[in-house]
Every structure is written in structure tokens, then in C-alpha cells.
Amino acid sequence: MFAVFGRSMWRWRWPVLICWLGLTLAGAILGGQVFDRLVETDNLRPDAESQRADRRIAELLPEGPMVVAIVRDRDPYDPALVASVQRVHTDIQAVPGVREVEDLYNAAGGRIGADNRSTLVRVELVDGLPTERREETEDRVAALLREIDAPQVLVGGEELAERAFAEQAIDDAVVGESVALGVLLVALVVILGGLLAGVLPLLGALAAVAVTLLGLYGLSAVTGVGEFTVNVVTLLGIGLTVDYALLLIARFREERAVARPGERAARDDAGAAAGDAPDASDPVDALARTMATAGRTVLVSGLAVAAAMLGLYVFAEPLLAAMALGGALAVTLATLAGLTLLPALIAVAHRHIPEPGAHTWVRRSLAAAARPLRRIVPVRPAPPRRPGTRPGSPGSRTDSPGMLARLAGYAQRRPGLVAFGASAGLLLLALPFLAGANLANSDARALPRPMEARQVHDVLLHDFEAGRAAPVTVVVAADPASAEVRDLMNELNTLPQVIRMQPRPDVPGAALVIDLTPHGATGGPESRDLVRAVRALDQPLPLLVGGPAAELVDYRSSVAQRLPYAVLVLLLVTTVLLFVLTGSLVVPVKALVMNVLTLLATLGVLVVVFQWGVGAALLGVESWGAIDLTTPVLLFVFVFGLSMDYEVFLLARIREEWRRWSGLRTPAARVRGGERAVLAGIVRSGPVVTSAAVCISIVFLGFLLGDLTAVKEIGFGMAVAVLLDVTVVRGLLLPAVMSLLGEWNWWAPGPLRRLHERFSGDGARPGTGSVPPAPVPVAAEP
Question: Which one of 100, 144, 338, 344 is most buried, by most CB atoms within 10 A?
């Protein structure tokens, strides 16, 4: 089926390209409008207790958006300053949309900072203003506040901080993607050996991203799409499309170089280097065989990564749900581009795709650049490839073992030791996360320190809040004068986590709102313990607990409750897809365990860098003592998806090679043949996986060029995950475990095995037929 589809892509290449061009133009025109429809997405579902508490407080004590100004570095009672503040007070009060203005001179309880040279101005806006009008009012108020006659006036507030975060996220995306695409183009040209060949994956990626933006524009009409969603989704689409392009181009070059029965002998090396054109039928057949093998791998990989995105949707929180839908859309379009656009591009530009190792201008330039180094470190030239040999096999021009082949050869010689050492090393890296991860909500601390909204947060916390945590708020539905309420307040005041208890005044009706200031930091262990302690009280009164710490407790509880369902979804889908690909039930379980090890090790490294601050300065990151609570969930899905991407790349080729050896008669011969199949599959697919890992790491490292800490966590985490996955997991752990398991790698119950053989064509035992096994050595020298 895939071979027929590949021939169809060749025949209809121009209509396919025209169709994608139209979609890309539509995406460039309409998709860009998605940035005007981005919304703030909540972390929690509306039915969470902290959310219900917030809504009840808003009903009892309605309060509009707040703009805060900190007037600094001047005596608060300087007559000139007093006059200036009163004049600005009058001007702001006259602005439409302003409800109330409070300052030291016009409201009871005005506040002076701990340095005695700063004071606070609070401006409350009318609640329920449309977003556009509210932002206009905020800007007008901020401009008036900056007219106060003081050496420094810092203007901020929750809404302004969220706007600053959104604007910074867009700026980071533009900078990160621009630089990443430039570096990625250079890397692709070097990897593929030609300018046009290097441009093809990038063209596919840009088209997929443009159409993804068009899809997000449509999605924004159904659900909220946030700035963070656009950042992550676009870079994920770029990375996956480039991965699929590398896989298809590498397999096309390999199939084009191999002689087939009934065709003329393969071209010799001189003809290949000169770029002589093959038969008219040659590229068509090569593309058909490419789609029959690599095209099938792209589809399985895309389905696996899309399943990982849907696993994110199981968590059901609004932010994660929007991310899941956007991610699934990006993966679907990247897969569609890999199955249609990229084959069409290969069909059009196949004459400009050089053979592996061909002496193109890129190779000559690299050789000239490396000539001074060769005078110091002599390099033995690789032997020429014999006609008709498959690239990557002995006798080919590219038979020198790559990184993955060297690691796999070492792992197969010492499988038990390597499997234990690699697993222990990954668990050791995971210890910081398992033992002491502090997950918290990102606030203004995620903004760069020079930004005004961040400075307002820091000064408020230090000079006006004495560094105390945000209060845990208790909403009680009862008469404040009743004996039950008095007993409750006495019990709350004796909780060990409480520093101060303060009921809010002027609460209407039979209700009470109590602020409990806890020890420690906002969202810290003491705050979370206080939330749990209040909720665990044996009280007859109905009460709700809210505040930042309660939101964190609710989020962590929701994730913990839904994590088993997400894992179950991923396990079921992974089992089905990898069974279709390999006919094994052992391979999916092994893949899940390895992916979990990769994820835990990655999170451990994140804790060391972003929570502990080790090496954070090298990344331009200021540690704030915690990890954003959404980061582990996002990495769980993205790491799982991309690990499955590389798992499918390798297993598809290992399976092909194993079929060549599986017909051997004796168990010992089959075991040795299985080891050779694993090594041969890694030798032949390893360069693609390594190149894909380099390219997608470049894409995700683009996140580090931004200023938002939460975005940097994702970029750095994905880069670390890819590095660990490609080296430790795919290079060492996978071949070691497969060598230990032997034929058990391909175990499945009899009925399922026969079903797979029937529909996949594996029952013919190719190892006994006319296709000879490739003589790949089991233990390549490292």
C-alpha cells in the first residue's frame, strides 16, 4: 500500500505541491491572526475547590483589576511629592473605567515601605470591562502614574504582569525560532551535503508550521489558545517535520544507490560523485520503496506522538487541554507533510540530492576547513564503496561506524554490565527530582529581572509584605457571630503553620472570609500543609479554601489522580502501534520503561539547574527555587512522544534486519543473527537518528534564547532528554537489553503472532529466501 502511495506521490507531485503552497499562503495570511486571538488560559478546571473559593470571594467582595505603583527614593511626606500624588490621584479618578484610587494621603491605612522612602498607590478598575477596553484603561492609568514627581515610579499589577508575560512569550518565540531556523539550515546543509537538499526539510517544516497556525486560528474559535501553546506547538512541528524529512531523504538515497534484480548494475563511484542521472524508472522505484519502509515508519511515529499529545488531554486542565489539542494538530500536520509534501519535494528535487559521501561543494568546503586539523591528527580515509552495496553496510563508502554503532557494539559485548550501568546512571540523575522537587506556580518571578512587572513584584514582597507568603484564604458560609464560627477561628489560629489570622471586614450576609498567613514562601511546603490541614478539619461548617497555595495543591492532586489514566492511554496506544510495527508485545513494555527512565533523569537535571541553580548562570537563568508545575507534565508527554519517534526509527530498521536472520535453523544461530540484526539496524538507522537529534536539539535550544524561565525549562529539558535518549538509551540500553532478551524481544501470543504475520506479510520468513543476510559484524570496534 505504501509503495503504491509513493508512486502516487511521484505521479501527482505538482498538484500536491500546489495544494500545500495554497495552504501555506493561507496559513501565512490567516494563521498570523491567531496572535490577536490568544487568551489567558487557566491552570485549573472551574470545579477545583480553590477556583470555587475564588469565585465565592469575588461574589462577596467584588474587586476589579488592580494597577499598582510604587513611588520610591523620596521622603513620603515631601510636600512636592504629596502635591504631585494628589494631582495624579485626581487625574486618574477622572479616567473612564477607574473605580477607586488609594494612596497614602487619600485613604485610611496608606502604606509606607520598609525603607521609609517608598509608598504605594493602588488603582482599582471597574470589574467586567472588555479586554480591549481594560487594557486601554490600564495603559492610561500607568502613564499617569509615571507622571508622579519621584526618582523612580514602578508600575505593575497582576493583569500587567500577565500582559508582559504574553508579550515576552511572543518576542521569545520570534527570536528563538529565527535563530534556530538559521542554525538548523546550516546543520541540514552539512548533514545532507547540498544547499537544496538541506533546504527541503526546512521547506517542509515551514509549510507544516504555517498550516498549524491556520489550524490554531480555527481552534481558537472553539477553545482558548494561549501564548505558551503557540510557542511549544510551533517548535514541536518544526522538529518533527525535520525528523521525518531526514528519515525519508536518507532512505531515498539508500534505495536509489542499491541495485535491484533485473535492473542494470549500480553506478560506480566515479559516476556517483559526478552526479550522473539514473534510469528514468530508478527514482520512481526508489521513492516507492522509501515510502514502503520509511513512509510506514513516519505514519507509526506520527500516530505514537499524537497519542502522547492526547495523553496530555487526559489531564483535563484548561492549559494542558489547549496544549494537547494544539500539539496533536501540529503532530498530525507534520505527519501529513512527511507523507505527502516531503515525497513530492523529493520527487521534484531528487537530482539535487547527493549520494552519501559524494564530493559536493559542501564536503569540499568542510574538507578544506578541516585540513589544518588533519596535519595535527591524521585521519585514515574510508575505503571506496563496492558497486551494488547498500550504504551503511561493509564495503560501502560510509561503512565507518557512527556514534550509535560504536555504542551499540560496546553494549552487545557487555550487555548485562551496560544495562545495569545505564539504568543505574539514569536513576541516579533522577534522584534530585524524586527526592526534593519543589513544583510551584510561575508568577512574576518567571519574568526577567529588568522588566518593570518583575521589579514591582520583588519590591512589594520585600518592602511591603516583609517577605511573607501570600495568605491561604478560608471562605465560611455561616453567621460570623455564631459559636461555631468562633470555635473554627480558634482552631485555625492554633494551627502550627499559621503566623497571622485576619478576617476581612465588611463581608455581606452570613459569610466570613479569613486570611491565614503561613510560614515559609508562597506555595512552599508550609503553605501546602496549611491548606491540607484546614481542609482536614472536622468542622460542621461548610468552607472553601483558596489562594495560590490551594491552587497548587489542587493542581498537583489533579495531576496525580489523572496520571495513571494518561499512562494507560499511552501504554495501550503504544502497545498497539509497536505491535503493528514489530509483531511483539515485549517491545512496547520495554519502550515505556526506557521512556520513563529518560523522563525521570531529565527532570532530575532540571531540578539541579533550575531549582538548585547549579550552572543556571551559564544558561542566563536566575533560579527561583522551584520548577514550574506544568513543566513535568509537558515534558512527560513531549519526551515520551519524541522518544517514541526515535524508538520507531530504530525498531523499524531492526525489524527489517531481523527478518533476514529469523529463518536460521538452530537457536544459537538465531541468537547470533538477532544480535547482528540489532547492530545492523542501528548501523543503518543510527546516522538518521543522530542527525535528527542534532536538528531537533537546535530547535528546542532556541527556547533558551528567550527570557521567560518557564519557556527555558521546556527547551533545556527537551535538549537534555534528546541527548540522554540518543546516547544512553538508544546507544547503550536498547542494544544491551535486546541482546539479553534475544528471541524474547519478538514474543507475542500465538493468535496475535499469526494475526500479525497474516496482515504484515512476515510469515514468509525472508531469512530463508532469496535475500541474503547482510554481513554486519556483531561487535564493531569502538
Answer: 338
